[in-house]
Amino acid sequence: MENWKDNHLSAILEYPFDFERYIEERLREIDELDERKFVKKLLLEGLGKVIQGMEAKYQQLEHRVYDELEIAENQYETVMTVVEQKHYDPTNGTLFPVTEDDLDEKILRGTLHDGNRHWLGSIFLETSDSRQREFENKKEYPGVVTQGEEHKITTVEILPAKRYRDAMEGLYQVFQDNHIPWNTINTGYLDKFYDVFIQAEGAEPVPNSLEEITIDFGEYNENIRYGWIPLWNIEWVKFDCADFMLPCMNGRYYEHEFSLEDKNEKDGYLIQTNEEILEIRRERKKIILKSLKETFENWKALHFVQKETVRSLDYDAPLLTNRKRDSFIRRYAENSRVQLMTKTDLFRRIMETDIRDYIEVVGYEICYNGMDFPNIKGMNWFVRDELFPMESRKVLLLKFKERQQGHYLNDSMVRFVISQIQMEISEYRCVGVIT
Asked: Over the stretch 385-398, which tens digit does the pLDDT of each residue have?
């Protein structure tokens, strides 16, 4: 069939039956040329048109059913990438810094200064998760500080960039406060950022940035990227009572309306709670904020931009998203609220996530000895509402195959999909391996 991947049957049957090719292959078995011409005309112009007509009718029926089974659009899907700070484009309205402080090292230096430990900068480690753990466990690396003609040997300490962990934990809390279901965000980039610190010794001057020191990261030197920052499709916006119509009184409280009438209907908005906001309630085309305050200023909202991501100049890194691939089976499952715990359904849910360019699931096992599979921190580490401890659960071992051999994000893609599946399956502890 033509354009098989463009229609919805590709979500149900992986390989179509090509009747035209089948007929041509059978025709080769007829030695008599005139007989072959007659049979070809009979089959292709007769039976062929019947088959094409039946396929067209089935496709029309499928489209009717598919279009009726709509799923609600997710207004809170995320997109993430990394760029060099000097290439950041502030006019790009689809990608924003995960933390605004990344644009000003002076602010970061003052924020991250810890007693005698001075922050020199951040690095991005472009390597696999296994090598990353080895890099992280070593913690300290030698460096040379050059001051004039004097060279001083020193040691630097590397730590995971805490500000990005705080950003993720804060984002999850905003989802909770707004009563919006949480979907795993692919933090494959954020997890590979490290802060570099140096200890101050007495009154001796210390370097103020990574440009003033030469660090020997050994075997990881070729994987270190300097001056990179993460971007995502989320921006903070401030608003105050002047942006609203007059609030209405509801007993002893004021209800302020955050209007969505003038906003892009595909974009999502979440309100950050504070001590002045008592309740957040969502209604059609507006968000109601209940407060004791009649007036306010500098309240904050999160804006999730859902239009197509724009790649500015030198925005070359892949985009990591938590979007799910649309399909007929997914629409049916979403509408019927039925989750079948079958191999086919499990694999479908896995491959609906945005991992197809990197890995694919090829098998699974149920294992009873959880000690054979040590815990690896997932991407939902801040979700702490499990009723039963992970250690007491059987292990669902999911096996993956690399589509891009040796790509440094493959391990992160496994952690991402395992983190999401773990939220959907509570009876097992999910573990992923690349075979």
From this structure: 655 666 778 999 99
